Automatic annotation (TrEMBL):
Biological or metabolic pathway of the protein: Phospholipid metabolism; phosphatidylethanolamine biosynthesis; phosphatidylethanolamine from ethanolamine: step 2/3; Lipid metabolism
Protein name: ethanolamine-phosphate cytidylyltransferase
Annotated Cytidyltransferase-like domain residues: 1-120, 188-269
Organism: Daubentonia madagascariensis (Aye-aye)
Lipid metabolism found in the keyword field: yes
The family this protein is said to belong to: Belongs to the cytidylyltransferase family.
Gene3D superfamilies tied to this protein: HUPs
Listed Pfam families: CTP_transf_like
Length: 337
């Protein structure tokens, strides 16, 4: 769960719907570096990010990279869940082989249109192509499709596809609850780009301001964010940022495309008193910003490109081995009678 995005959140939402209690194992920096390459976030940051996702009941720090029956039994888990992409060890083995054979493995659909690879590509290619809701520019698609890929690589799991927002996705992520009598309505606004631990620390502190808080997060339009941030910001478009924020356990509602200036009309709409001495400034205690994340990526650019190439080469080799297993020596596939 490095650089947690709404694709990860959607996997956890689907997993939680399959049972009654969701335990999420998060690997250490050492384990990830060994099997995949350097993580963007530290393990402590990643533990806290996953705990902040509203479908998660419990986080297991330092979870082993290979999921075994022993681990499932240790935490009284009936089964484990992973997306319908593959995850491999450093030597190219399926990390879920043992639990699959024991019938204690379930699969959920991978979210189309987002991957950590894609987000890293957006940060490194300093264009605004990803802001467009139209078809991606040829420059962006060419770069994104080739970012960190091995020559001739055609991995079905790491290719870039465009994210398409639907009302169903928003319904799945939204709580659907209106403020109740006795709840304190609190409004916060911003870009919330690359939703990260700095945002989580801030929202957690806002949540503590009241006994029964109802937090509404206003998300600025892409053009507005680009106006005050410049460069290629926001990295995530408004639709993507909406799902990222809705997945946070501290947020009750989102204003999609909030005005930059907090108006009396906006506050009245949410039945919140205004200008009325109710502005409060919160120190999150965390100095992480989207800028700093981008700097981490740029600093380690070559390592990330090497990581992606290595990861794809392993996955392609695994796919080829599976394909060979399906084919008889005569060249006929099983089942083709």
């Amino acid at each position: 769960y490095d650089m947690v995005h709404y694709g990860h959140s959607n996997q956890l939402r689907q997993a939680r719907a399959m049972g009654d209690y969701l335990i999420v194992g998060v690997h250490t920096d050492e384990e990830i570096s060994k099997h995949k390459g350097p993580p963007v976030f530290t393990q402590e940051e990643r533990y806290k990010m996953v705990q902040a996702i509203k479908w998660v009941d419990e986080v297991v720090p330092a979870a082993p990279y290979v999921t075994t029956l022993e681990t499932l039994d240790k935490y009284n888990c009936d089964f484990c869940v992973h997306g319908n992409d593959i995850t491999l060890t450093v030597d190219g083995r399926d990390t879920y082989e043992e639990v699959k054979q024991a019938g204690r493995y379930r699969e959920c659909k991978r979210t189309q249109g987002v991957s950590t690879t894609d987000l890293v590509g957006r940060m490194l290619l300093v264009t605004k192509a990803h802001h467009s809701s139209q078809e991606m520019s040829s420059e962006y698609r060419e770069y994104a499709d080739s970012f960190g890929k091995c020559p001739g690589g055609r991995n079905p799991w790491t290719g870039v596809s465009q994210f398409l927002q639907t009302s169903q996705k928003i319904i799945q992520f939204a709580s659907g609850k209106e403020p109740q009598p006795g709840e304190t309505v609190i409004y916060v606004a911003g870009a919330f780009d690359l939703f990260h631990i700095g945002h989580v620390d801030f929202l957690e502190k806002v949540h503590r301001l009241a006994d029964r808080p109802y937090i509404i997060a206003g998300l600025h339009f892409d053009q507005e964010v680009n106006h005050y941030k410049g460069k290629n910001y926001p990295i995530m478009n408004l639709h993507e940022r909406t799902l990222s924020v809705l997945a946070c356990r501290y947020v009750s509602e989102v204003v999609i495309g909030a005005p930059y200036a907090v108006t009396a009309e906006l506050l009245s709409h949410f039945k919140e008193p205004k200008r009325r001495g109710i502005f409060c400034q919160i120190d999150s205690g965390n100095d992480l910003t989207t800028d700093l994340i981008v700097q981490r990526i740029i600093k380690n650019r070559l390592e990330y490109e090497a990581r992606n190439q290595k990861k794809e080469a392993k996955e392609l080799a695994f796919l080829e081995a599976m394909r060979r297993q399906e084919v008889q020596p005569s060249g006929e596939k099983y089942g083709n009678f």
